[in-house]
Design goal:
The protein is mainly α. 57% of the residues lie in helices and 3% in strands. It has two domains: 94 residues, Arc Repressor Mutant, subunit A (Orthogonal Bundle); 148 residues.
Length: 258
């Protein structure tokens, strides 16, 4: 979809505020051009191509929109990306004709809106944004990428949860082990990199940080992630992708809040 087609499908687009236009252009770049992080130049070009007056203070506007907790834009080294709240703000005003199809069949077309509601349970904005990018991979049938990225986000959440709320119990469980991990004391999140993910999950269980049922769930998802992370003959089913994300968000992220 060209930007002219995209804008032409939005009623009253000429009456939108400059802030709304910036968010809409960012959404177009993200969803229809595959540009998740955009520069002020890219937004300026959108104004120009759409035949809108380019704001003389565009840089100031971008910085203002990306300031504060829950802001619709996230700024990093003079590049910007829509936050999860920014995506929602735009999608609340867009007609359905402007939403991209997943291109993966009717099941995923119906499942993506459901997954967005699932992601609403994720409180951390950066982690939610990362998961939203994982879901967007379904738009090009990159289901393995969705699996791998979703797993990374959930493990990062669990590590943050352990580090901020249960570090003493985790380190105590490490010291009780009979392998090399007994010599490790976690003092920063980077220290979790000293152990395999399966070992991290095992220590969480022995420390009582997660239940045995959650440990079983994590082990199952880790095994499937491993199968998807390298070339193999495994067929990644649509329903499997949806349940993978749903199970991890509902049983790990939402129940172990930081």
């Amino acid at each position: 979809m060209t930007i002219d087609q995209f804008l032409g499908a939005i009623p009253g687009i000429r009456d939108f505020s400059r802030k709304s236009l910036i968010l809409i252009f960012g959404y177009y770049l993200r969803r229809h051009s595959g540009i998740t992080q955009f520069t002020p130049k890219a937004i300026r070009e959108c104004f120009s191509v759409g035949n809108f007056r380019i704001p003389s203070d565009l840089g100031v506007l971008l910085k203002k929109i990306s300031t504060g907790r829950g802001s619709p834009l996230i700024r990093s080294n003079n590049r910007y990306a829509l936050s999860a709240s920014g995506v929602k703000e735009v999608e609340d005003i867009l007609p359905s004709s402007t939403f991209p199809s997943t291109g993966s069949g009717s099941f995923l077309d119906a499942a993506v809106p459901h997954l967005k509601r699932v992601l609403a349970k994720v409180s951390d904005e950066k982690r939610k944004e990362f998961l939203a990018e994982a879901v967007s991979c379904l738009g090009v049938s990159a289901k393995r990428a969705t699996i791998v990225m979703s797993w990374l986000a959930v493990v990062d959440h669990l590590q943050e949860y352990v580090f901020t709320k249960h570090l003493s119990a985790f380190n105590a469980a490490l010291s009780r082990r009979s392998d090399r991990l007994s010599k490790i004391t976690v003092t920063s999140k980077d220290d979790f990199g000293e152990m395999k993910e399966a070992q991290f999950i095992e220590v969480c269980r022995s420390a009582g940080i997660v239940t045995n049922d959650v440990r079983k769930l994590l082990d199952e998802k880790l095994g499937y992630r491993n199968s998807c992370a390298h070339p193999s003959a495994i067929v990644v089913g649509d329903a499997k992708v949806v349940s993978f994300i749903e199970d991890l968000v509902d049983n790990v992220v939402a129940t172990h809040q930081i």
